[in-house]
Write a structure and sequence with these properties.
383 residues, alpha/beta, Rossmann fold, 2 domains, seven-stranded mixed β-sheet, 13 helices
Length: 383
Amino acid sequence: MKKTALSLSILAALTLGSAHAATVVKIASISPLSGSNSNLGLQIKNGAQLAVNEMKAEFAKAGMTLSLVAYDDQAAPATGTAAARRAAADKAVLGVVGTLNSGVVIPASAAVAPSKLTFVSPANTNEKVTDRGLKNMNRVCARDDAQGPAGGEFVVKNLKAKKVYVLNDKTPYGQGLADQAEKAMKAAGATIVQSEGVAAEERDFTALITKIQALKPDAIYFGGLYGQVGPFLKQVRDKGINTPVVGGDGFDSEDLIKLAGSGASNVYFTTVAPPVESVAAAKALAANYQKTFGAPLQGYGVMSYDAAKVVLQGILNAYKLAGNKLPTRTQVETSIRSGTYKDLMTGEVKFDKNGDRMTAKMYVIAVQGGKRSTAGTLNVVRK
């Protein structure tokens, strides 16, 4: 009799526990965690993780257990799209922070648009990312049609370059950025002595450097990523060419300086990610990042933290609008796009009808003697 009563008590306890069990809610990060772009990819993953850690308690109050699931897209469109499909197949995943590469997020976001899985990107700058009008695609960074012209004008007006050699890495990001910069440089009166693409995986620039030596440009504009640009800088400087090399936020990694070695000088780039020291509110975040991951916080860690906070607050807003019930992905998609997000590291975020941030900042960074410094700040307002 006692055994039966005890069994019934245990059963009742288990039943009561399951009735009040927290609902599992996940967000995903998709970024390159391996390969030559992994330095920034880890910043995206880790920045999102800090935001999740910070908001777990608030989700718990609403009866939700919050976690992050990280996918490695290897900076490859097919791999990133497959990762997005895996995330979409997990019904607990209500939003995505990512990606790093525009060439990855364009197909990945389109693939999961029917499932209403919403992206908030900390880094994708190509215009096509949002110009497609997908309801599930948003970004907290500025676009190439702001970044490219800013870099192009810097080349002509600040560096006083009259002849410019333009390169791109044949990706949507690199080509789009270089095209925008080239238009701005031409409009400002510069002559483009050569404009060509170099495959993103190329690391031997011997033939290219020979052409640069022959054409003697006043500046080189390179639409590409640090994993390729670093070796390019090393090789071009080793040949005695000290021409200024200018690019976009793809240069924005501490690994650029490591890869370039003694070639990390007379380099300039625009970036949509803030230098950590320029964000007063990021001091505690930087300390937390160092403590948690044993590495310094970089600009894209800040941007990813903000992107994740937008996703998470969007989920909570949708939860409230659903009558304090677990929201659907459609409700989250609508909530994220229509929300106003404050108390973020990079200021207020509000999206336009296409998912672009209404007001954003860009920064001009100079690298001299292997040291970075902020050369300027620009405000970008979407109209």
